[in-house]
Amino acid sequence: MVEQITLYRAPTTVADADAIADWLKERVGASVTVRDRFLSLFPDESLPDAFAESRVLDPYEPETGNTMLGIVRYEERALEHPERAGGVIYDGLAVQQVLHDQLPTEERGLDHLHVPILDRVIGTWGEHDGRWHKRVNVLGQPALVSVPGLYEAPAKPEQYYKEQQKHAMLSGDAPPREVLENEVDGEFLIDDDPRTTDALCGYALQAYHYIETGEEFCDDPGCRLSNPHRQPGVIEAQLRDPPFCDRHAERYAVGTAHL
């Protein structure tokens, strides 16, 4: 049984770990605390090599890792200056093991769940279709929650990618938020979206629910414990009322669903 949950901030993102913790406190039977960035609290000389080894090299090849000196140096800089990192996908299960090994021995038990909120893109290999899939979270101990994964893992409307490409060809840069929102039909989350914290509350709860019950995700598309593969599904599950299906509402619902 989970007695304590520790969330870790991701200061280079808009995600508010303290607000997520407050939301969880109203719904779980565990103490919830917040610490600073995980990779800053538990520095280790082996981390740059470990992250280099967990890099996804090809979206259609399961093998990972490039430990050439330049890559390791990049990972060193990314650890010291996370705001400069980006454009890399990491094997989520490998990163999970790396972070687990950094935890104090006395905190590794399942009674103390750790939830690092990450500014890195994580993925898992799909045996069923032979390719890597970006993920919002990876459940387990610790449970990883990826902020960029929230924007990138669930698929956006096809028109979004067309507008993005068109704008990049014309200006060499990503289109402003208002362009995407005005030109693309459908609802979706984009980088630094003000709804990020609210949406991530459900993914943090999934981490707790999995350790408590062994259930990975809910099959009801309107429940915050579901795992939608498209952005409109994320909006429906995480930002619309009611927040839970009937079964999970009995366990987690309170008077106010959102922040």
Walk me through what this model shows.
The protein is built from 11 helices and 8 strands. It is of the alpha/beta class and 259 residues long. The protein has one domain: Collagenase (Catalytic Domain) (3-Layer(aba) Sandwich). Strand 1 (4-8), helix 1 and strand 2 form a beta-alpha-beta unit. The longest helix is centred in the C-terminal third of the chain and has 18 residues, at 196-213. The protein is globular.
Key terms for this structure?
single chain, alpha/beta, 259 residues, 3-stranded mixed sheet, globular, 11 helices, Collagenase (Catalytic Domain)
* Arrangement of strands in the largest sheet: 2-1-4-8-7
The CATH homology group name: Collagenase (Catalytic Domain)
The number of helical segments is 11
Overall mean pLDDT? 92
Shape: globular
What is the total domain count?
Answer: 1
Brief overview, please?
With 259 residues, the protein is an alpha/beta fold. It has a single domain, classed as Collagenase (Catalytic Domain) (3-Layer(aba) Sandwich), CATH 3.40.390.
Secondary-structure map with pairings?
Elements: E1 4-8, H1 17-25, E2 31-35, H2 38-41, H3 47-53, H4 69-80, E3 89-91, H5 92-102, E4 112-118, E5 121-126, E6 131-135, E7 137-138, E8 144-146, H6 147-152, H7 158-171, H8 177-183, H9 196-213, H10 231-239, H11 246-252
Parallel strand pairs: 1-2, 1-4, 3-5, 4-8
Antiparallel strand pairs: 5-6, 7-8
Helix pairs in contact: 1-9, 3-4, 9-10
